[in-house]
## 1
Amino acid sequence: MHMRTTRLCAMTFAAAGLLFTSASLAQDRSPSGLSPVAPGPAMAPEKIPDDKIDATAAAVKKVSAIAENYDQKVARAPVDEKERLVDEADKAMTAAITDQGLSLEEYTTIIRVAQNDPVVRGKLLQRLE
């Protein structure tokens, strides 16, 4: 479970980085300890429906807020509670994504496409403003 949380956080920070930097700089600014997410299945940028981009933007906002909240909780928590908090964060982030009608695979794939395709990145950025 911890790896999935780490991957979700990495993707969320990468998506948030789209707001401030180019895709290459966003990966360089990932929090320490988080490695870039391995490439997944390809999705043609022109085949991503607008409603999926809308859902991804909404999920990014929610996942970012959850990650920030839990990062603070985990940092302050006693060692014996950190694992439980990480599991809670994982469930909350997963729910934030699936509540938008996306699978985890769709979410991460759309974020990856946005990192590499300026048209998709632009659409996502518009919705994140």
## 2
Amino acid sequence: MKNNYRIMCALIAWVVLSLRFVDMLIIGEYSSVAETLFVYFGYFTVWANILIALAFTAPLLNPDRKLANFFKRPAVRAALASYILMVSVVYHMLIVPYWNPQGFTWVTATGLNTVMPILYIIDWLFFAEKRPIFYKHLPYWLIFPAVYGVTSIIRGLLTNVYPYPFLNVTELGIGNVLFNMFGLVAVFAVVGPIFIGVAHLISDRTKTES
């Protein structure tokens, strides 16, 4: 059942990621495919969903491969759960109130920000190994969102292209953007221990029942 579920989710993930890019091309907001790619890969949502797609795909590959072993690690899968949950929370709380996508755009946005988070959280709760995960792993979990925030700011300063309004230095100023970025990283620092605690709770309950 686990492998069948992950095969289905992997297919959905890669299809939705591809359709989101196709949708951006159809909208034609950017002058070339290269520029569209540049903007597309600027979104945390896209990077988080690529990691999720790899997490669904890698365990289905040769189990001796480093990629498969990396994405099977309990700490890695729990970190990805925290990332994709935050993608959904930020989208629904900070973006949806100011953005009303329609048609194909709504389908792809919902796929990345709602469907994939739900599918991955289900996988993490019911199929992923929960141990060993320790609180000492948390600083490593924060590297990805922190690096994303810093590179987004640098990229924006060089190109004036910002993926999200709350990272727009031109409109908000560098001080406010840094505050927003540190705030988001702090939220990840709070969400991470919740997943670690839930992992320990599920693991302990499973041992007790067995």
